[in-house]
Amino acid sequence: MSNFKINKINKDLEIDILVDIGDIPELGIEGYTFKQFKDEVDSVLNETNTIIINIMSYGGDLYQALAIYDYIKNLDVKVITNVIGASASAATVISLAGDERYITENSKYLVHKASTMFYGNADELSKDIEEMKQLDAELIKIYVENSNLNYEQVEALMREEKFISAEKAVEYGFIDKIKNKDMNLINKKTISKMTNMRNEFKTVMNSLKEEKEQLEAQNKELQDKLAALEEEKETETSSEEEETNETEETSETDEEFEALKAENTELKEKMDSLLKEVEDFKANKEKEEKEKITNTFINKQVASGVINASTKDKWVSVVNSVGVEEAEVLMKSVNKTKISNAIVNNEVTDPLKAWKAGKITTETYMNLVKK
């Protein structure tokens, strides 16, 4: 009997692979097949934005795993893979198909060379050996493409055939990040976009700063001219004799003085307008960046089951009021209280059974187990 479930959470399709990969009738093993995966995904593909695959499997039929891997790689939707407990052998191939790859902190990861049960005559065994070599080459190619290791390093790791820790899986590049209750869910693309916005803001600010400095220099020059004219005017008006003889010159000086005052007033208005433009631009950029961070944080919390979609707007208000870090602390506090009450009221007596039945999310299951 296969053990998997499909849950739609805010247009996210969640699949649990908790059994061997593929069916092995001769051993009485009924596992998770490519047909099951394709049928379930195709049935809701037009309704989902993201596919989340939770993996707890020790491997199985490599051909089934390769089919699932190729199918995922050709999907137009985002795929996230989570290793929970263990991912070994053929199951690692599926885990590598994700656009984002996570692993829980106590999980193990195993890659090894292809293997099979040989039987038959010498010619048949020779064909089986050649087939194993071809599969090994295909596995090495996939592992190199989806890790930080080269061909020789991957081959050595497969030959060693032993489980590695979650930390090693991240170090080797098979996994992007260790997933736990405190992880920051803002992805790399969002951070990159935010960085570009900051750089653009700095460029505009530097340009405005230069323009402001030029206007200030022009203003200083006008102020110096005004001061000189005022001094000249005082000198001219202090002498009655000169005032009588130089009436026409004084008139011209007054006109020039008034013209400079008008020019200074216009320049001051331009500076005030420019400063307001700078402040408005800065405020809008800060508001946009804050909204992007808030929306990304809230959507990820909803997708991971930390909060419900029905309370999304309320949590947006909370984040805007106290910030992401304080809001995350409040979310954890609320979830812990819900989990404790559920246990006291005997609503969740068997976390694993409730998780497999789809009654609680993976995040809640991990919190219950750790508690």
What descriptive keywords fit this protein?
371 residues, alpha/beta, 2-enoyl-CoA Hydratase, Chain A, domain 1, 3 domains, eight-stranded mixed β-sheet, 13 helices, 8 strands, disordered N terminus
Q: Could you characterize the architecture of this molecule?
A:
- The protein has helices at residues 34-44, 62-73, 90-95, 122-145, 151-160, 166-172, 188-238, 240-245, 247-303, 312-322, 324-344, 351-356, 362-370, and strands at residues 6-9, 12-17, 50-57, 78-88, 100-104, 108-110, 164-165, 177-179.
- With 371 residues, the chain is of the alpha/beta class.
- It contains 13 helices and 8 strands.
- α9 crosses α10 (312-322) and α10 packs across α11.
- The chain folds into 3 domains: 6-179, 2-enoyl-CoA Hydratase, Chain A, domain 1 (Alpha-Beta Complex); 188-303; 312-370, no CATH class.
- The model is unreliable at 1-5, 181-195 and 339-346 (pLDDT under 50).
The class by helix and strand makeup works out as: alpha/beta
Report the biggest beta sheet as strand number plus sense, adding barrel if it closes. 8 strands, mixed
The unreliable regions are 1-5, 181-195, 339-346
Average residue pLDDT: 76
Cα-based radius of gyration, to the nearest Å: 35 Å
Instruction: Determine the oligomeric state from the structure.
Output: single chain
